[in-house]
């Protein structure tokens, strides 16, 4: 049975309880990138490549959908099982399933 819209209409944030992981020197890489309006697209692309292609210790990559839009070509081309890539909403940008790369693949798989 589906819940009424009032049960979830205000739920728009993701909470993460986890640890910061920094790889051992000499390269010492963090397992996150904080993006703001000043973050260059090339920096986002570099983090995406690092987390999805180079690092073997990352299991899941969560990316705000509006940030994924900045590197949409890379996100749409990514089709590996690991790390899993999940597009999530942000506080200022609602989730749009029409833009989600995983949802696009699901629709294609079912011939929609």
Automatic annotation (TrEMBL):
Keywords: Hydrogen ion transport, Ion transport, Membrane, Transport, Vacuole. GO terms for molecular function: proton-transporting ATPase activity, rotational mechanism. It is a peripheral membrane protein. The keyword Membrane applies. It is found in: Vacuole membrane. It comes from Saxophila tyrrhenica. GO terms for cellular component: fungal-type vacuole membrane; proton-transporting V-type ATPase, V1 domain. It comes from the Eukaryota. NCBIfam families: V_ATP_synt_F. This is V-type proton ATPase subunit F. InterPro entries: ATPase_V1-cplx_f_g_su, ATPase_V1-cplx_fsu_euk, ATPase_V1_fsu_sf.
């Amino acid at each position: 049975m589906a819940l009424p819209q009032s049960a979830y209409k205000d739920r728009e944030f993701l909470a993460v309880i986890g640890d910061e992981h920094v790889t051992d020197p000499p390269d010492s890489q963090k397992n996150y990138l904080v993006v703001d309006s000043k973050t260059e697209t090339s920096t986002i692309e570099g983090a995406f490549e690092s987390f999805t292609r180079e690092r073997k210790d990352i299991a899941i990559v969560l990316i705000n959908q509006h940030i994924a839009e900045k590197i949409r070509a890379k996100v749409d081309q990514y089709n590996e099982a690991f790390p899993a890539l999940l597009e999530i909403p942000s506080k200022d940008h609602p989730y749009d399933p029409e833009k989600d790369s995983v949802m696009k693949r699901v629709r294609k798989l079912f011939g929609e």
